[in-house]
Amino acid sequence: MASLVLTLRETLRYRGAIGQWSWVLHRVTGLGVVLFLFLHVIDTSYAVFAPEDYVKAIASYQSPLFTLGEFGLIACVVYHALNGLRIAIMDFRPDLWKHQQQAAYYVLGGTVLILIPFFAKMGLDAYNHYTHDPFILPITEVLTAQLPFLGYFVVGAIAALVVAFLQNSISDSGEGKVHIGSTGSSIERFWWSFMRISGVLIIPLVFGHLAMMHGLQGGFELTGQNWTVIGTTTGTLGTAIGNGINDSGTSVEFIAERWNFLWGGVAIWKIYDIALLTLVVTHGFNGLRLVLTDYTMGNRLLHRTVTNLCLIAGVALLLVGGLALLGSIDQSAIDLAIEASRAMMGG
Ligand code: HEM
Ligand code: HEM
């Protein structure tokens, strides 16, 4: 029922088929990127806390299943960014809403134009990789490597439910519906502006990150021999001793080269990743809360559970990702990665 009311409300708001579809696409693409982010931040933190698991995580990324998924991810990021920019501009300039149908078509056209060079580069990288007899992690191992995420989700959901029960027993009974009026509170007005401002700030950060990680370098070059680590002048994967690290070409060394790289004495990629982490996690998990709120308005306990879950997941990711960025990757971590890499490839 709640979703029907919502669909009707949004159809009226956007007055037309393309507006309605762009609302659905914005939602689906945002959720897709949040799901990826959940895996990605935890996986990246393994480089510091469990290097042997990071080696496996990157081997999963370099498997056909994830290669296909990356095409979907890039499409989601590009569409969501352009459409988010359209929403932000129009909400700050309401006089432009009369052009919203036309603008929605521009967003679709712009997405296709941006995806052409991205997909061409990614397709070429994939072709070069798979035609050179690469190591491919068996699909069963790729899937079992994702199981811990299910565990983290279940633990988070149970914690969120327990806290929601406590909240319900402290405040009024759990019977009532959530007051729709509460969405017009000053806190919600803050989040409304935050989603628009943070979205605009994320654009250069996330596209810069993708250009480095995928567009220019190619996700397959997170491991290997003789590749310059993008964004560094001293790091060459698998050949040189960069920043005091004996580089053997594992994915853990790729991150070590980037995070240890100093530009004028400043660890620029750590600072870049701190900004990226803070903005995308806060924007993404608040976005998830907004979506889930739409579908749980009728039940106070459920609404509190999903709100708590978004808060727990967001804070956990900020902590795990932030601690990894503040930590360091030393020679013992790299030795573990090299050992795990050899064991994985059966060497
Ligand atoms: C790349 C630049 C981005 C821009 C310009 C942008 C913009 C926006 C805007 C303006 C909204 C509010 C829409 C509304 O209230 O109607 C929004 C919602 C959302 N964003 Fe983003 N965003 C960006 C990146 C991201 C990223 C990286 C994620 C995931 C980590 C994400 C996830 C979401 C989600 C889940 C929503 C809620 C969607 C809904 O309510 O239907 N966004 N975004
Ligand atoms: C398939 C494309 C992607 C690849 C290959 C990739 C790769 C990487 C790598 C290697 C790092 C390690 C740090 C570094 O070298 O700077 C990293 C960190 C990070 N990436 Fe990505 N990335 C991708 C897409 C994305 C997207 C779309 C987002 C945002 C929605 C994102 C957000 C982050 C964040 C927040 C960090 C820091 C994580 C932490 O502190 O634990 N990445 N990424």
Distinct helical segment count = 12
Task: List the domain count as a whole number.
Answer: 1
Helix content: over 70%
Indicate the mean pLDDT: 89
Tell me the total number of β-strands.
4
Radius of gyration: 22 Å
What proportion strand? Answer: under 5%
Bound molecules: protoporphyrin IX containing FE
The end-to-end distance, rounded to whole angstroms, is 57 Å
- Can you tell me the overall shape? globular
Task: Return the string of H and E elements.
Answer: HHHHHHHHEEEEHHHH
Query: What quaternary form is this?
Result: single chain
Describe the biggest sheet?
2 strands, antiparallel
- Give, in spatial order, the strands making up the sheet with the most strands: 1-2
Unreliably modeled segments:
none
Helix/sheet category:
mainly alpha
Give a written overview of the molecule.
The chain is an all-alpha fold. It has one domain. It is 74% helix and 2% strand. It is built from 12 helices and 4 strands; from the N terminus they run H-H-H-H-H-H-H-H-E-E-E-E-H-H-H-H. The strands form 2 sheets. Strands 1-2 form a two-stranded antiparallel sheet. It has a two-stranded antiparallel ribbon with strand order 3-4. Helix 10 runs antiparallel to helix 11. The radius of gyration is 22 Å and the shape is globular. The relative contact order is 0.14. The model has no long low-confidence stretch (mean pLDDT 89). The chain binds protoporphyrin IX containing FE (2 copies).
